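Issue 218. Parser rejects a valid record. Input:
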Amino acid sequence: MTNLVNSVLNHAGGLPLALEVLGSCLRGKREDVWESTLTKVSRIPNKTINDVLKISYDGLEENEQEIFLDVACFFKWNDSEYIKKVLDSCDLETTAGLDILIERSLISIDYGILQMHDLIQSMGMDIVRQECRDDPRSRSRLWRYDDIADALSSDVGDCAVKAIVLEPPKLKELPELELKELSIHPNAFPKMRKLRLLILRNVHISFHGPICLPNQLRWMEFDGSGPWIPKFPSGQKKLVSIVMRKGTITEVVKHFKDFQQLRYIELRDCESLVSTPDISCNPNLEEMKLWNCNNLVEAHESIAYHDKLQVLHFKWCPELCVFPNVLKSKTLQDLKLSNCPKLERFPDIPDELRGLKKLSIRHNALKELPTSIKNLVSLEKIHLHMGENPISRPSNNYELQKLQWFKSFLRRIVFPNLWNSTDPCMKIGLPNSYVSNPLNCNLSQVEFLEDLSCFPLLKILILSGNIITSLSISIKRDRLSTSSISKDFKQLKYVKLSDCESLVITPNLSCAPNLEELKLWNCKNLVEAHESIANHDRLQVLHFKWCHELRVFPNVLKSKNLQDLNFSVCSKFERFPDIPHELRCLKRLYILHTAIKELPTSIENLVSLKIMLLDICKNSVSIPSNIYKLQNLQSFKSAFGPIVFPNLTDSANPCMKVGLSNLKFLDLRNCNLSEVEFLEDLSCFPCWKT
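Output the parser choked on:
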């Protein structure tokens, strides 16, 4: 009976009206009646509840009613921006309509995802179902497989359907075998003169040949399989968006000039596509995305001059080699050329393109960027990723004054030095850049970073996988005064150096007063940690991992904001620093695979420490008795290394009588312990759980 009660509560979803109505129906009834009633209301909504909820719907204007029914039938749990695109294409005022639905508590939008109460959704679906209970072709919207299969299997008579959305679930284990078979009569759609929305996902259409779609259609998505070919009758089309995956697009491309209203094109896995269509006759086109079109060779010249195009993506097009020589699309905002290994040349930009903000060039054969890249005057984000050839960045890339984010990965990159040119733009640098991330770029020097006044907003610096020997963010004294250094690099918060095998010493952090995280991973020849680490006022995270040669570390540690300190697999690191004063922020301490033999007695000053991990130390590690002063310690682990733990009864020290009052987890496996007398008084471990 408990399960049945829970089922009722879940169905009501916290709606008091639903609880009241269902309670009155089920009070005093047998369990089998409860089960039957729940089955019925999940399939056919309760009329009393629906009639009350429908009052809110009846008070809406036609625009909001249409939006409400589309959301209820198709778009619950969808991204709100996607919904706006789809419904705007259907001549609905979606932004204003969604606001009204939110005001009436019919929907909510949380973190961009549209949500609707199950009973309100059920009420909306029932409104559509009541349009004609017996004939799905006489309803405005179809979403159930059986109804859609019935409506599309013949071409008998006119049809009232405005929208079809079908997305049967796929099994994760065998996604290709779980496509739902859908039989479509070649003349079924022309009878649907009101059809404006068609979305078919996870289906296999078995018909071989063209299937004619109505010119009134506004939004079309197909993600499935089958030999069918979408085709439209002659005349102007109202199609705003076409999304095709694993489909044959030849008939649509052949008559592209008739699609005057088209705004969005997304073609994936379209093997028949060899050249992109001429889009000069599509004046409203805003987005064009071509992904995994294995036989696509050419991008038509028209993409270079389009007046409305905002997004242009080519991804996983292995044969793409012909691209316009120049780029003049003045409204373009986002250009992506990814995994196109035969693309060798980036187009020239003869005039300023004030719209382009994002540029991604990944996995292709480009060897250089043109000097005309300076005309991307609004560029904010650039991503160069993983190529075999070295790529040269021209010096006038420093004219990209709005650049905020730069990333390059697995490519030898040649960066221009700020000081090797008389070009005035070289003296300005990138004043708005806050992320620099040249990963594995074979950089041996970073002189382009020496004048930190040229990167005043830089917050994140990642130089992993390069061959630099040192990072001189302490700047050459003949160029900047010490006072200007700390002022100019005050925004830097995060530095990561991993796999920099030539790095010998960590950078001087005194010129980065607001640095919060410094991570050095797998720097195999790193010997010394600079003294500035020990006294940094803002440093919160300090990690040395797999730095096998690290030996020199400051004798004392005074970084009062440090929260997380990690020495892992630093096999030559022998001495843990003294802590002369209380460090009230340090909560996590990891010392793994080091040569440390003892912890200093000053470890008692880590008064806020919660987690302490000693692991696989070759030498016997002695734990000082005043470890018992760490009253906030909750977890202590030491494994595969002999440790000497102080006995609670061996000292007159009062802290030894207190124990570790907040310790919950203690793991001393394989620590060569011959006795555990320190555990004899369990009252000293009142919170101990494991």
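Fixed in the parser; the record now loads. The first helix runs from residue 2 to 12.
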